[in-house]
Structure formats: C-alpha cells, structure tokens
Amino acid sequence: MKKLGFLVVGGILLIAVWYFFIYPADYVVAFNANALPGTINQTLKTWNGEIDGDISKNDDLGSVTQSLKFNDSTHIYQWKFEAISDTSSRVSVSIKDSEHSFMNRIKKPFGDISIEKRSASTAKDFYDYLNEHLEEFKITYDGESEIPTTYCAYISLSGKQVTKASGMMRNYNLLNGLLYHNGISLNGPPFIEVTYWDMKTDSINYNFCFPIIRSEKLPEHPLVKYKRLFSKKALKATYNGNYITSDRAWYTLLHKAEELGLKAAPKPIEFFYNNPKFDADELNWKAEIYLPLKE
Fold first, then answer.
1. Total domains in the fold of the chain
2. Which residues form a coiled coil (predicted)?
3. Could you give the CA distance from residue 35 to residue 68 in angstroms, rounded to a whole number?
4. What pTM, to 2 d.p., does this model score?
C-alpha cells in the first residue's frame, strides 16, 4: 500500500510539474484553413503589422512565434501550420501569458480565464483576415512546363518579398524609357527572375526584366544589364490577383514539387501580363509563375 501511495503521489507531482512548468500553453486554439502553410505564414506577418504585434521567431514556413500586448500582459502565440491537402492546412496556436501563466493554470480548472476569451477572439480575427485575403486571389496549378527562353534588359534589386511589386514600379519607367527612346523592341511581358530567396527572413534578390529583341547596339546605363534567360524544365502555375502577393503561388509550386518527389530550385520566375494602371479588378491580373526544376 505504501508503494502504491508513493506511486500515486509521485504521479501527481509529475503531472503538476508538467502542467505548471513544462506544458507550453495556457490555452490552445486550432482550425482548418483553405491555404498552404507558406500563404498562411505570409498573411500572418501582414496581419501582425496591422495590429502592432511582434514576430520574434520564424523557424520555417510552418512555425511562427508572435508577441501581442494586452493591457499589463504580453501573450506569446506559437503558431503552427501543417498542410493536410494540396489546398488546405491545419492551424494550431498555443498561447501563453508571459507574466501570469502560473496563476492562469491555477485558475483554469475552476472556470474560464481571461486569456481564453482574448485568445479565442484574436485567433478568430486572424481567421477572418485570412479568409478575406484568400478571396483576393486565385492560383491554378498548370503542371510541368518549360521556362521560355528570351533575351532581356534587366535591373538587379533586393528586398522583402512584400516589396517586390513596389520595386518593379519604381524601376519601370527607367527601364521602359531607356529602351523606348533607343528604339529597342520589346518581345513579351515584363518578368522577374528571383536569384536568391531567404525564406526565414522573407528576403529576395531578383532581376526585373524586359524581354527585348537583341540589337547590335544596346543603350548603356549604370543600372541596366543584358542577358539571355535560357529555357529549363519547371513547374508552372497561373496566378490571378494583386502582384504584391503573387508569391503565394511560389508556395503552391514548392508543395507540388515536394509532393511529386521533384527537386526544385527556390528561384521562381514570374511573367506579368497586365498593367495594374488599366484594370482596377485585381482578379483580372494574370501572372505565370515558374519554379525551376533541378537537373
């Protein structure tokens, strides 16, 4: 009986230690979303900026740690995203009050605690924000294809993924004007070629390119260079929506490559078929996205 008593007491102590000091959350929320982890990751970061939160850790596409302040408390949100199909994910978030966690865990068995209502409301706000964003674009997976070969004039840029479109707009007139005033004929829609992608920092290096018909005398400019883009095998998707968020298609293609057991180079290429100045309906904007495959 003594041994049994020791075992019971020991078990209770172990459970208490785990509950109060090891279990990572005061409260857990979970839901399904019609998006892949990369899209949810990027949408969360945009939402975080709008609500004045802080992203303190981004280990990979499926994991983000966020801090939110509420009155005298700082709540730590540990987000996890796991794909459950080609178009959906399971989202779970473990929430902990960094200042009042111990007291929350004492009170929790006896009724609702304030962090539960606050956390449920915050998670619902993000859920609604995500679903609104998903209505703003469309991605169609087109299968295996080839990147078209072309000669181009380009400007090398770098920055956050979210600034990609603004970088293009800042340099559009320079590149277009230089070619037009020197009689260089265009040979297709403008495109970007990502040369480096850091998924942890959401940063890219990329070339903003205008396809041209090669001429014997190309105009010189300190920012403009010329090169040939060679054809190569790739996975392709069609994106309709604002070009600011066309990187959502990158994650679709990465997921497809993994699903098909293909080795992909994380260097997407995007061809843009619409001038946003002439069409207010963003769902009419079209981009063809290619993810190169390794030989």
1. 2
2. none
3. 24
4. 0.86
DSSP secondary structure letter of residue 228: E
- C-alpha angle 169/274/40, rounded to 5°? 75
Q: How far apart are CA 209 and CA 33, in angstroms?
A: 35
| pLDDT at position 23 | 44
Tokens of 158: 């770098």
Which phi and psi angles does 99 have, rounded to 5°?
Answer: -100, -25
User: Could you count the other beta carbons within 10 Å of the beta carbon of residue 271?
Assistant: 19
Stronger pLDDT, 175 or 217, i.e. the higher one = 175
Could you list the residue range(s) of the whole structural domain that residue 122 is in?
23-135
Instruction: Flag whether 17 is in a domain.
Output: no
Q: CA–CA separation, 212 vs 189, rounded Å?
A: 10
Q: Is the pLDDT of residue 14 over 80?
A: no
C-alpha distances (whole Å) from 89 to each of 80, 237, 260, 275 are 10, 19, 18, 33
Q: Which long-range contacts (CB under 8 A, 24 or more apart) does 58-65 make?
A: 58/200, 58/201, 58/202, 59/200, 60/199, 60/200, 61/37, 61/199, 61/251, 62/37
Helix (H, G, I), strand (E, B) or coil at 115: helix
Same domain, 200 and 288: yes
124 and 178 together in one domain = no
Strand, coil or helix: 99: coil
- Flag the least confident range among 44-58, 183-197, 202-216, 224-238: 44-58
Residues making up the chain, counted from first to last: 295
122 and 193 part of one domain: no
37 close to 81: Cβ distance less than 8 angstroms: yes
